[in-house]
UniProtKB/TrEMBL annotation:
Residues 257-332 form the Peptidase M20 dimerisation domain. Its EC number is 3.4.13.-. GO terms for biological process: L-arginine biosynthetic process; proteolysis. This is Putative dipeptidase. The keyword Ion transport does not apply. Belongs to the peptidase M20A family. PANTHER family: ACETYLORNITHINE DEACETYLASE (PTHR43808), N-ACETYL-L-CITRULLINE DEACETYLASE (PTHR43808:SF31). It comes from Lysinibacillus sphaericus (Bacillus sphaericus). One of its GO terms (molecular function) is acetylornithine deacetylase activity.
């Protein structure tokens, strides 16, 4: 079966359907949320649109309480899941777009729209793949089910609800990331470090410290209010800034100094790509502060995070071949002289990480430095072995269809949608070397790649579920 040829013959239909879907504004809409419409009207319309397509093809469809739904074909005990989502992130400043974000304008061989590559394009490609398999008359020995979420971008409540009520696929893939496929995803935990004892608030030099709003970002701004500091303070600050090539500001307010430092934002999965403003501000203050609570706070930050993203000071460092280094990002850092310091760390740990032993040891080491360590959230690593038939099949299909025998299978410190599947991987549809325009202005999908992805997904379905 020449799947690429079959997909090419239906390119117009593929584009037509993608345009219809991207023209539905399916951003989470607080204003139209009701008890029956959990994410607002737009995401629900997009779900209903796709389910209607399934019905029109004579396939089984189900809407699960307006949270998610599915389209199913084939017969058999086992279930192959294809996990997609039809919600999109907001467009941002619309003046940054060359074409209207909900138009699906085609130019230079690309289709431009919010959702074009995340995840409406891949969803429509996978939907076309189901039709190609059906129309080719391929006999199936598994049921093939496209599961359609409507809240991937804002917390996965769609699939959480779905899988409380519906069957977990035996195997699956999610066309919501990169080709070839992602078979190793790190664990993602939020760790909270809190200062156990606080000094005398009336005597402390550090009054306030604030940086970051989200643990999954490197803070690009930090601010502190200090008092009772010795006189070359201003000069020391300027020296520190120029030595570290940083920008900052210093303001005198009564007997207080308010100082700020600018850093560089980055995603918590790659903290080394950012400049953590909180850590640099602490590094400066460490030279200046002597009172007990203030000093303990900045000492801790510098010991644990300054020029180290891997947690050596708390013995958290760890690395494995399949998923790489364990990393820490102090994303929210606060201190108040009356309450002490507090920080929330996005902790991205390797697939084979000995979590309990490492955390227990880190708690002991943190306690020595005056801090408690608690786990606020923990999403376990997600891994399917390269030797598994699912991986072998998907990788084989990708390599045959593209001729790309070079690009290794991928691992990520971010979480993909596939981690909600018991046994599943992210599989496309961003091709190696193509720019990642997800969540950006002028998001697009390359039309030829869309067609190629439909062919890849069709062959994958036929291989995984065909008799
Ligand atoms: Zn997505």
């Amino acid at each position: 079966m020449d799947w690429l040829q079959a997909a090419k013959e239906r390119q117009d239909e593929l584009i037509q359907e993608l345009q219809e879907l991207v023209q539905i504004n399916s951003v989470l809409d607080e204003k139209t949320i009701t008890a029956d419409v959990p994410f607002g009207e737009g995401p629900l319309k997009a779900l209903e649109w796709l389910l209607a397509k399934g019905k029109a093809q004579g396939l089984q469809t189900k809407n699960v309480d307006n949270y998610a739904g599915h389209i199913e074909m084939g017969q058999g005990e086992e279930l192959l899941g294809i996990l997609c989502h039809v919600d999109v992130v907001p467009v941002g400043d619309e003046s940054n777009w060359t074409y209207p974000p909900f138009s699906g304008t085609i130019a230079d061989g690309k289709l431009f729209a919010r959702g074009a590559i995340d995840d409406k394009g891949p969803t429509v490609a996978a939907w076309m793949a189901m039709k190609l398999v059906k129309d080719a008359g391929i006999q199936l020995n598994k049921r093939v089910r496209m599961i359609i979420g409507t809240d991937e971008e804002t917390g996965f409540r769609c699939v959480d609800h779905y899988f409380k009520n519906e069957e977990m696929p035996t195997i699956g893939f999610a066309p919501d990331a990169d080709f070839p496929l992602i078979n190793a995803e790190k664990g993602i935990a939020a760790l909270v470090l809190s200062q156990k004892q606080i000094g005398d608030a009336t005597k402390e030099q550090l009054l306030l410290f604030n940086a970051g709003k989200r643990s999954n970002m490197v803070p690009d701004f930090a601010k502190a209010t200090v008092q009772f500091v010795s006189s070359p303070f201003e000069q020391n600050f300027q020296t520190f800034l120029s030595k570290n090539q940083l920008e900052g500001s210093l303001l005198m307010e009564g007997s207080h100094y308010i100082i700020t430092i600018k850093g560089k934002a980055a995603h918590a999965m790659e903290p080394e790509k950012g400049v953590n403003a909180a850590v640099y501000l602490a590094a400066f203050l460490q030279q200046e502060l002597t009172t007990e609570g203030s000093k303990q706070f900045v000492d801790f930050i510098v010991d644990v995070f300054h020029q180290d993203h891997y947690g050596h000071a708390l013995a958290l460092q760890y690395e494995d071949d399949m998923s790489g280094q364990t990393t820490l990002n102090p994303g929210i850092v606060t201190y108040d002289a009356t309450q002490g310091g507090n920080m929330v760390i996005s902790f991205r740990y390797s697939v084979t990480y000995p979590f309990d032993d490492k955390i227990t040891e880190a708690q002991r080491l943190a306690a020595d430095k005056g801090f408690s360590l608690d786990i606020q959230e923990n999403s376990k690593p997600h891994y399917v072995s390269e030797d598994d038939p699912l991986i072998q099949t998907l990788a084989g299909v990708y390599r045959r269809q593209t001729g790309d025998n070079e690009t290794p299978l991928l691992s990520t410190g971010g979480g993909t949608y596939a981690r909600v599947l018991k046994k599943g991987v992210a599989f496309g549809m961003l091709f190696p070397g193509d720019p990642d325009v997800m969540h950006r202005a002028d998001e697009y999908v390359i039309v030829d790649k869309l067609v190629q992805a439909a062919a890849i997904y069709a062959e994958a379905i036929a291989e995984l579920a065909g008799k």
